[in-house]
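Case study.
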Amino acid sequence: MSLVVVGSVAYDSIQTPLGGRDDMLGGSGTFFSIAASAFTRTSLVAVVGEDFAADDLALLQAHNVDLTGLVTAPGRTFRWGGRYHEDMNGRDTLFTELNVFETFAPVLSPSQRESGFVFLGNIQPKLQDHVLEQVRSPRFVAADTMNLWIDIARAELCEVLRRVDAIFVNDEEARMLTGKRSVVLAAKEIQAFGPNMVIIKRGEHGAIVFNEDDIFYVPAYPLERVVDPTGAGDSFAGAFVGYLEATGDLSSENVRRAAVVGSLMASFCVEGYGVERLKRVDRVAIRERYQAFSELTRFGVLDL
Amino acid sequence: MSLVVVGSVAYDSIQTPLGGRDDMLGGSGTFFSIAASAFTRTSLVAVVGEDFAADDLALLQAHNVDLTGLVTAPGRTFRWGGRYHEDMNGRDTLFTELNVFETFAPVLSPSQRESGFVFLGNIQPKLQDHVLEQVRSPRFVAADTMNLWIDIARAELCEVLRRVDAIFVNDEEARMLTGKRSVVLAAKEIQAFGPNMVIIKRGEHGAIVFNEDDIFYVPAYPLERVVDPTGAGDSFAGAFVGYLEATGDLSSENVRRAAVVGSLMASFCVEGYGVERLKRVDRVAIRERYQAFSELTRFGVLDL
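After joint prediction, the assembly is written out as follows.
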């Protein structure tokens, strides 16, 4: 197995100003794996409960996800409920039922320990570190995190940062983590903590990739209708890391392409509830939207 | 005169988390004219009080601004005070002293009436319309506005929109004006009101230009230190319209270049208090930052 992801598999209940859905397949590991499946096979390390639907297992398998690391534990699958604000940016958590996730202790199989590419979804930094202990000599490790861990587990998170190649954070998390107002200074300080690559996610404004000294601005695709923002960040990460693994090319030029692929996959994700749009993305759609991104940002030389 | 701008000339008092300054030269007409001066001569239609400093007049003249339309009226110059929030995005108005601006009724000279390019700064829509009545057959008219006018003078603003080629608004104003959540749908609806070109300003996230069917995403230059955001929008507009006037080329390719030039000029503006950085921008600095923008957004083809 060359790309392993450790994250959540969940049932999400979402309300937006446009409507809602209950108990949809979700979770960081799910969005990541399905997004990555456009480029490569992913090995998913996660836990589900006895209520996890056969259809959902089949969906993951149909997306080339290796499920030997998906444990079924006694009890119910992790559930999360959220309500998005009018502007579709902010959201409130309505409930969190950890269920089987509460005692999740990811264990990698011998082949997963040999993975070249690793993604640590947004779980407790201590668990992320526990996964890193098990991987033998990965070529590229990326991690996601959130404000909660910056708040209550900063030391453990800093330990993870010391050991990863890339970290995904949003503007607010970057500022929280560093106390720097400027996203440029914040990213530089996070780089000094360890990762060469800091990907600042900015929702409908796209992302900025700080990759050693290279700075790359990738827009978000301008959509007429955002249905459900859930999973956008994990879809970005899945396509980004999946593309890097599939191409095996970590040059700054290819990291830029990976970021565009990440942003376009996030744009597909938010066009439907849960994974309903994401699961239907094929290479034709990717090539078309990649071309649209090129058009969106292209400009000629200045004759001055 | 080929480019005429109608706007405010003011003394601003600014507080930011980093510090502050009192009674600095400011106002939409000022920022616009100085930004445009990198490319072309601007004719400024505005009013100041008897307290307006000779140094400030000299500064405008040194920037190739025609001041025959700058009226000195009995009383004090327009004053505005504001305090920026910790994140440097939001701000509170501390005071507004309209002073001579209260009775401002812009009158264009015969040569100004022949202008090919017109910029209507953020003043009452009724006054913007009053200016439009005086211009004979402009080639390109752009206007700025704000939430206040959308709120209290929507009908007059819609009348202005019917008559302009381009409108500058931010995300929030675009949504207020149309009730559309998606910036794409909002921009399309504003285009239906009249202007072919809708420039959505997004502060530290750059801007999106909707130009007939063309959509162009221009980032903001990632700065390590933002000193004072005041005037960024007017600097964008000044460089944008000034560049279009200087080149005389309204093709979509050139509009994209103009937007990059606008965004880079806004980035210079916010690097200093008031106009202190903006006034020192030369063509060498513009060329360098334009090249930096190219680097920031460039990516190769996808081999998939």
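Observations recorded in class. Chain B has one domain: 3-297. Chain B touches chain A through 45 residues (CB under 8 Å). We will return to this complex in the next lecture.
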